[in-house]
Amino acid sequence: MEFKEFYWRKLPHIQPLGGMFFVTFNLKGAIPKWKLKQLKEEREVKYLQILKRSQNKKRDLETLSRKMFIKYDKYLDSYSNSKMYLKNEEAAKTVADSLHFWDKKKIELLCYCIMANHVHVLMRLFDNSETETPKALNQVMHSIKLYSAKKCNEFLGLEGNFWEEESYDRLIRNRKELRSIMRYILNNPVKAGLCKEMTDWKWSYIKEEYNDIF
């Protein structure tokens, strides 16, 4: 897969080497097409309003992006008819193994949470000073999703696309935002009513040096 520091599909993706990224990826069909269309149309209306009326477009577009993601993520947690393949222990372990595979090779794996139909992960890309062959985020994610999809399809008896093709990713700007995103990730099962404490969820991980957020 081609190295891309910036590209645009349904969403913009800015992926500099050395950057820290909050990534969310979900199962194919985890959100129905009608809901995706509704969210897209809502975003486009608000986007155009900001372009026409805002006195601070950068700030307001950032706010819009966060608000629309929260709506998207809330729907993933609440949609009862969604495919829930990651409830399967072997499937969840396969995804966890695929995330850990690149840790200390091309990325620093900071935090993740594997839910029934989606995954949140926080990682830092290695740059040229840390590896002779750095990978862009789209390359790392392609590998993670390709490997886990193949394995999960095999033992679940499935065919076709396991993951939604495009992932959501956000470049983390500072330490304060980093810790805020970590709490958001690890609190996902609590917010969804699946456990009482962040530490109770089996398929969560945080790098040891950040354990003070609990």
From TrEMBL:
<protein>
    <submittedName>
        <fullName>Transposase</fullName>
    </submittedName>
</protein>
<dbReference type="InterPro" id="IPR002686">
    <property type="entry name" value="Transposase_17"/>
</dbReference>
<feature type="domain" description="Transposase IS200-like">
    <location>
        <begin position="16"/>
        <end position="188"/>
    </location>
</feature>
<dbReference type="InterPro" id="IPR052715">
    <property type="entry name" value="RAYT_transposase"/>
</dbReference>
<dbReference type="Pfam" id="PF01797">
    <property type="entry name" value="Y1_Tnp"/>
</dbReference>
<dbReference type="InterPro" id="IPR036515">
    <property type="entry name" value="Transposase_17_sf"/>
</dbReference>
